[in-house]
Design goal:
Elements lengths: L5 H10 L6 E7 L3 H11 L4 H10 L3 H19 L8 E19 L5 E17 L1
Antiparallel strand pairs: 1-3, 2-3
Length: 128
């Protein structure tokens, strides 16, 4: 058990929070693997290059991640007062979310399980 008053514990916990601008999308309707194909391409790139890549990438995940990146840029501009020209993608990753299980009827009274996978996508920006 932690020592100290509740407010001291909260203050200590909030002191080591990450102050970099970020955006998170929870329960995105795609698998982690499909999201990671797009995230691997834009990781470490500056924001303008990443937006160009996402605009012309034919995958479905790229349209979702482009919206998320634009949200992170707006967070950096409005909440942290950063210049969008100096921003780059410091971190971007996708984590597994709960899977929806569905049943598909098959021949002779059998049933196959269909797994509709979800993921949580996070984009963290930083200044150069």
């Amino acid at each position: 058990m932690a020592k100290g008053h509740r407010s001291q514990i909260k203050r200590a916990r909030n002191a080591n929070k990450d102050t970099r601008p970020s955006a998170k999308l929870s329960y995105a309707r795609m698998s982690v693997q499909k999201a990671c194909y797009v995230l691997d391409v834009i990781r470490g790139k500056d924001v303008q290059t990443a937006l160009g890549i996402l605009t012309y990438n034919p995958r479905y995940a790229s349209s979702v991640i482009k919206k998320l990146l634009e949200s992170a840029i707006a967070n950096a501009e409005n909440n942290n007062g950063m210049n969008p020209e100096n921003l780059y993608i410091a971190e971007c990753y996708a984590n597994k979310a709960p899977t929806m299980k569905r049943i598909k009827p098959r021949a002779q009274g059998r049933a196959y399980r269909i797994e509709k996978r979800n993921c949580h996508i996070t984009v963290v920006l930083d200044e150069r």
